[in-house]
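Re: the multi-chain job from yesterday

Posting the exact lines I submitted so nobody has to dig through the queue logs.
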Amino acid sequence: MKFPYTEKVLEHFKNPRNVGKLENPDGKGLEGSPACGDMVAVYLQVNPDTQIIEDIKFESYGCASNIATASIITELAKGKTIEEAKKISWQEATEELGGLPPVKAHCSVLAVEGLRAAIRDYEEKHGLVSEQEPTTVDVIRSRLKHVMNPMAGLDIIRTELVTKMEINDGVVRVLIDLPSNHQFAANIKEEVTEKLESLWDVNEVNVVFTE
Amino acid sequence: MLDKMIYLDNSASTRLDEKVLDAMKPYYFDTYAVATSEFGYSMGIDAKEGLEEARKIIASSIGATAEEIVFTSGETESSNMAIKGVVAALKKKKGEHIIVSKLEDFAVLNTAKNLEKQGYSVDYISVDAEGIVDLEELKSKIREDTVLVSIQHANQEIGTLQDLDAIAKICKEKDVLFHTDATHSYVRVAIDVSKTPVDLISMSAHTIHGPRGVGALYVRKGTPLIKWMDGGYQETDRRAGLENIPGAVGFAKAVELVTEKETKFLESLRDYTIERVFEEIPHVTLNGSKTQRTPQNANITFHYVEGESMTLHLDMRGFAVSTGSACFSRSLEASHVILGIGGDHERAHGSIRFTFGRYNSMDDVDAVVDAIKEIVSQLRAISPLYNK
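And the result, structure tokens for all chains:
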């Protein structure tokens, strides 16, 4: 076959490893959106004593590059401690796959971000964030860079859909430049809330739409 | 994996008909001279006869006269020639405003965008959810300085057909020239220029089992058009460069081989595909019009799955189709056509275009639908979007 994919990419695409969902996962990460064309969810089961990732599964709405990278990432992460798994890079995954076409980088990088998001979720839920940095507007902005604007296929920060972010006494307020009855409003609200509510010092997330 | 590839991407290009090749061969091996004047040498005169006979056949296929046909290298050149030629001719006399639809092929869309960069004014007309141009908007956008309206006859991705008569009538009433890109409808859906006042038509051979790299532009007699490519004086000084005589002869042969019976057969393949998919696969959407549609096109979105993954799985099983997914395109942009009909990115990413040709059969449809059923189910099983 003459595809711009290596045999290994095609093999992982055809027979992805560790596919599926874990019920009640210890950590869960969801990156991307249908709008940008790729989305990946990663689920972790971690041994609380050893911090070893005992089970990992993924789901993907994505192209061959996305599915193959997610598949290889799960293989690389399984059996590692969360500290070791954190260090798995996109480059490492790409090398394992024998390379990926450069234009496909953004499709595959999501899989790595999915793993990191799942680890972060695990750490936050289990009080393992070593340095509990207070949540600032910058932290909020960084989190919201992972929420997609479905109309544009880019995140809500880059497309300036977020007009204001503030945090006071554990209450986060995010202003979105969309009417509340917009077809994507509910979806965006849900994703914004999910990205912020797990922060250790956040008690409440208010998403406000312009009317 | 099948023994041979089942090709279902006939709007991208078609397999050459062997009868077309047979018609072309003498013009490569025997009558290979350039077309000369009547006082040239006999081989050149024979070549010119072949070229002119081909011109007559193309002309007659749309009710035109031979002198109104200019041979080109295909759709892209025809549309560039039409649009750039007209705006250059009318810039000083009338103005610098043109109108195109949002769903045009890149041959028209990028020509319009290029003209915009050069200072021309361009309006992009909206379409409805089926891809049909808003005629009221068209009427309201035509101005005193409008020189050309360019709206395709059939859409390349979703197969929607425009009402050419209605558009041509509006343009005629407003005294504006009208160009249509008919690449994806030519000889499958009739156009008669003696009845429909269209001024310029882009056509191409490669979509009807003719050779690649040859097409034609119909230019209604009296249409102001400045030659946009400099060189020799071929094609009555409207298109520089030696004529592709074997190509033109092959194009004409391809036109002659298209029959009404075949077109009806393509319609039946299209309808059977849509019927089976809708009966057997949940969460699907037909893209384009149910009734105003080219005979060869079925474009369907399979929700919750991504198009490139589907095309790759299909290829591994021996089927060639295309998708509007961003991942499939070199530009990494989702189909402007699906977005243009109001579809969101997810709908564009999950769309698959099946386009049929002479060498397809009902068995091909059965095989591809069986395969896609399995693939969609397999991909939905791993999709975080699908509610299992």
